Amino acid sequence: MIKVKNLHKKFGDLNVLNGIDEHISPGEVVVVIGPSGSGKSTFLRCLNLLEDVTEGEIYVDDQLINTPKIDINKVRQKMGMVFQQFNLFPHLTIMDNITLAPVLLKKMTKDQAVKTGHDLLRRVNLADKAQAYPAQLSGGQKQRVAIARALAMSPEIMLFDEPTSALDPEMVGEVLDVMKDLARSGMTMVIVTHEMGFAREVASRVLFVDQGVIMESGTPEEVFSNPKNERTKLFLSKVL
Amino acid sequence: MTAFQEWFTDFSNLFYKCFIREDRYKLLLEGIGVTIRVSLLAVLIGILIGMLVALCNLSKRKLIRFFGSVYTDVIRGTPSVTQLMIIYFVIFATVDLDKWIIAAIAFGINSGAYVSEIIRAGILSVDHGQTEAGRSLGLNAFQTMTRIVIPQAVKNIFPALCNEFIVLIKETAIVGYVGLMDIQKAGDFIRSATFNAFMPLFGTAVIYYILIKILTLLLRRIEIVLRKSDIR
Fold first, then answer.
1. Contact A34/A40 with Cβ under 8 angstroms?
2. Pairing mode, strands A2-11 and A188-192
3. ipTM of model
């Protein structure tokens, strides 16, 4: 579903990604872990070209996407993204946050979008918040709306960029629960997170990224209980 | 007769002479119409130009940024009276347009330079995460700008824009230079016809004040609606 070949990313003189090769299959829940500054967020943001790629190739559904020839907006419509800082649109109600893209991009009529919006809000347990504004919600509620907003475009893949890092501890659980539900429903997901417990429970595969390369990749069992790479061991000894 | 009664009689005689006799109030009414027409059209032109120039100034292409900065630079660096007269007597000298429309274009061009800086500041004030969220949903750059960034920018810059509109209305008091009879010019006309400075000048001031007061109240209403989404 997503194929990454020899991905390099430089910010000025700084090498953030130093040749990443990775293949994500449909239905996989890939959790990316690693120390801060390791390039894991940059890797995720390259997948939908929020960062432009310095070198290498990214394929989505066997289509090369880092080329001017393709319409990146079309590709992004099938890749939902959830951000650390939620990035809800503060000038719009929760419902309008959810319906804006599907209606504007002509995926649905306004009526259909509102109906889907109510379904999605029920799914993230926020059925009563449709007419509220983002400023009236807690962090956890905002992030659940952000997930619903991304799902409204019926994406094939969901990208999560540290979705719980900006939350108060007591709100982390409610967001992770929604993500677990989503994983169980068979959604293909790539998740950058520091929640090791969650990674162990939900991931079908864990990637350990450090110094801009994938140091280790395997099932949660393999990576957490039996890490082979020295750097993985060191990292896990600090966070577990 | 008490001093007050005496003063009052003088005042009302003067008032009658300046505003009522020979239907002079009609001059002022006409002036109010001109001021409002010129200001309204100029505000619209100013916003349009301002948006365009702001987008130029934020462009990734150097050449486009250059045009934007030259525009802002030249307009801010020259007096508006000079600009008005150049546009009226030089650029539009042979064009058959109503005087007030030409004046509005001149003020619009002038205001555009200031509005562009306000809009640029507004766009920069919106967190970049908003743009990323819009783009990640598949919106193109234009849709993201018009549906997500600009609505938030407008809310942030609304007070500064109101300020600019108020300045613009008062700035139009120089249209007399190209022979338009606005409020200021009408007051001036009455002054030379009656040989009295006090009444027409204060009259002019009061009219401007009331116009701007009404506008301020209206704009405050709009701001309250814009701030609706901030309620917690």
1. yes
2. unpaired
3. 0.92
- What is the 8-class DSSP label of residue A128? G
- Cβ separation of B132 and A50 shorter than 8 Å? yes
Name the 3-class secondary structure at A201: helix
Candidates A187, A223, A183, A189; CA nearest to A202 is A183
- Rounded to a whole number of angstroms, the distance between the first and last alpha carbons of chain A is 31
- Looking at residue A106, what is its pLDDT? 85
**CA neighbor of B136 nearest in space, from A57, A84, A93:** A84
Give me B84's structure tokens.
């008005």
Task: Assess contact for B46 and B94: CB atoms under 8 A.
Answer: no
Q: Does A190 touch chain B (CB under 8 A)?
A: no
Strand order in the sheet with A55-60: A14-24, A2-11, A55-60, A63-64
Tens digit of pLDDT per residue, chain B (232 long)? 688 999 999 888 888 888 888 888 888 999 999 999 999 999 999 999 999 999 899 888 999 999 999 999 999 999 999 999 999 999 998 888 999 999 999 999 999 999 999 999 999 999 999 999 999 999 999 999 999 999 999 889 999 999 999 999 999 999 999 989 999 999 999 898 889 888 899 999 999 999 999 999 999 999 988 887 776 6
Q: What b/e readout covers B53-62, taking b as 16+ CB neighbours within 10 angstroms?
A: bbbbbbeeee
Helix (H) or strand (E) holding A3: strand A2-11
pLDDT digits (tens, 9 = 90+) for B97-138: 999 999 999 999 999 999 999 999 999 999 999 999 999 999
Q: Identify the three-state secondary structure at position A204.
A: coil
Q: A143 in contact with B at a CB cutoff of 8 Å?
A: no
> Contact A153/A141 with Cβ under 8 angstroms?
no
How far is Cα A220 from Cα A230, in angstroms, rounded to an integer? 17
H-run or E-run covering A64: strand A63-64
Q: Which residues of B touch A91 (CB under 8 A)?
A: 151-152, 155, 229
Q: How far is CA B73 from CA A51, A213, B67, B90, B108, in A?
A: 34, 48, 10, 21, 16
Is B137–A135 a contact, with Cβ atoms under 8 angstroms apart?
no
DSSP 8-state symbol, A129: G
Task: Note whether A156 and A188 are within 8 A (CB).
Answer: yes
* A41, A84, A87: best to mutate for the B interface, most B CBs within 10 A: A87
Instruction: List the structure tokens of B180.
Output: 């338009």
Neighbour count for residue B12 (Cβ, 10 Å): 11
**pLDDT value at position A135?**
94
Helix (H, G, I), strand (E, B) or coil at B181: coil
